[in-house]
Amino acid sequence: MDQNRTPWWRDAVVYEIYVRSFADASGDGVGDLPGVTSRLPYLADLGVDAIWLTPFNRSPMADGGYDVADYRAVDPLFGSMSDFDALVAAAHEHGLRVVVDIVPNHSSSQHAWFQEALRGRHRDRYIFRDHTNNWVSVFGGPAWTQVDDGQWYLHMFAPEQPDFNWRNPEVQDAFLDILRFWLDRNIDGFRIDVAMGLFKAEGLPDTDPGFTASSPIWSQPEVHDVYREWRKIVDTYPHEPALIGEVWTDSAHDLAAYVRPDELHQSFNFAWLEAPWAAASFRKVIDDTLAAVPAPTWVLSNHDVVRHPTRYAEGADPARGLVRGNAALLAMLALPGSVYLYQGEELGLHEVKDIPPEARQDPIFLRTKGEVPGRDGCRVPLPWSGDTAPYGFGPGGSWLPQPAEWADLTAERQTSDPASTLSFYRRALATRRSLGGTLPDTIAWLDSPTDALFFARGKLICAINCGDEPVDLPPHEQVLISNGRLDGDILPPDTAAWLLTE
Ligand code: NOJ
Question: What phi and psi values does residue 342 have, to the nearest 5 degrees?
């Protein structure tokens, strides 16, 4: 590897594909791998650099596939191993890298090892105890389930997702083999599910929920040794596969502990996604991140959170939330580091809030008896074409109902409309690519009115107005792109612009 060249992941735009909901080739109403392959030209056209596929391994689907029964197999619902190989080859032909999800914190309760444990053999691959503690599942309810002989096992998520015992070397070795298995199939990286969860403090002391540095559940020091081993393996592959952690922490400082030259390449920056629409909150996240994290990333939406245009609308005007979302997109695309997009944001999709209870499938909804709506609202299958559901998602139906108003939001409808969200995303990504490699990895804040942010990255200035009043743009030579009409040198509310100074 040429040490002076920027590795691909460093400033990539990665598009998350929630496989179940992207495109369905088989016609069973569930998205699949051939569906993804059929839409690769769309993604290449959109201008992303890589795709991240959510789990497609064999699974009983108690948590949409994040309950893996066989880490080396493709679930027939999503296709076959040759469909996977064909997808990777076609993606590479389109110049797209492929990142796959790996789920090391827990397996499915249908995994052969857990089935053996239930029969009383090798229970130390999981966390079985005679007594429980006070830990609660992230999905609601207790984190312990009792088995027939009276023992309890730990599951930080659904009961169908027993947590592995990472203090057992057998578990560690198994995952090294799983990494090699997929690396040998030519993938370009792993998104590591619940990356901060693998070890629990000895003795499993009682605690309160939360990702605090002192939690006995999350971010135990031993986890770093695991990623050092993983890094050694990926570094033996010449095509620079990346390790990207789903790491929830309380601070950028704690997040940075995972991103080191001998550990993970990157980690999701959920602080950006959690920041409310306000200049001060965006500025704080940017400052904290750039000060602490050597390889920053930015993300606004994923398959676990309410879509950002809906969050930014604060229950008021959905159209305003979308405009703000597009402004936030320009801000994150202007920052140093890489950007993670979530399928459908390029179509301007909102969270679907009116899914009927009987159609909902998220274990969070089911485990909280409907008290927490859960994540189905951001997982509704994409609208591709046509005027009626399933809007070209596939030849059959769609596993969650799609809203009638999505007829106006199909990719087909938006593709040739220069005013559409899709056209805006394409322009934004193309503009970022055209600047590629010419911008420094640092930013400088420029003076701005209180509710706006102006930052310079080399010759590029990004200005975003989060307030209710128009503001004057900083001095510039040229406007490269904005998400709304500029009034001369005035930046209206909810608008961002990229300016060139030379
Ligand atoms: C994080 C994943 O993104 C989420 O969808 C899943 O439910 C949990 N991890 C448990 O695997």
Answer: -115, 135
Q: pTM for this one?
A: 0.98
**Atom from ligand 1 closest to the CA of residue 103:** 11
- Shared-domain flag, residues 216 and 290: yes
pLDDT averaged per 10 residues, the chain (length 502): 75 98 98 98 98 98 98 98 98 98 98 98 98 95 96 98 98 98 98 98 94 92 98 96 97 95 97 97 98 97 98 88 98 98 98 96 93 96 98 97 98 97 98 92 97 98 97 97 94 98 86
- In a domain, residue 464? The reply is no
Ligand 1 atom with least separation from CA of 63: 7
The pair phi, psi for residue 442, each rounded to 5°, is -125, 160
Report the number of distinct structural domains present in the chain: 2
In a domain, 401, yes or no: yes
For 274-429, where are the E strands, in sequence order? 297-299, 338-342
Q: How far is the CA of 151 from the centre of ligand 1 (A)?
A: 26
- Report the separation in Å between the CA atom of 386 and the middle of ligand 1, taken as the mean of its atom positions: 32
For a ligand 1 pocket test, name from 193, 248, 375 the mutation site with the most ligand atoms within 8 angstroms of its C-beta.
193
- The values of phi and psi at residue 242, to 5°, are -110, 150
**Size of the chain, expressed as the number of residues it contains:** 502
Shared domain check, 382 and 289 = yes
Q: Candidates 63, 160, 218: which one to mutate for ligand 1, based on the most atoms within 8 Å of Cβ?
A: 63
Residues 158-168: b if buried by 16+ CB within 10 A, e if exposed: bbbbbbbbbee
Write down the pLDDT at residue 1: 46
441 CA to centre of ligand 1 in angstroms: 31
User: Where in the sequence numbering do the catalytic residues fall?
Assistant: 193, 246
Q: Name the residue at shortest CA distance from atom 5 of ligand 1.
A: 304
pLDDT at 209: 86
What pLDDT shows up at residue 315? 63
What's residue 58's pLDDT? 98
3-state helix, strand, coil in the chain (%, to 5): 30, 15, 50
Alpha carbon of 256 to ligand 1 centroid (Å) = 21
Beta bridge partners of 490: 472, 487
* Burial category of 373 from C-beta neighbours within 10 Å (exposed 0-12, middle 13-18, buried 19 and up): middle
Which residues does ligand 1 sit against, CB inside 6 Å? 63, 66, 103, 157, 193-194, 246, 303-304
Expressed as residue numbers, the domain containing 366 is 8-105+169-302+337-434
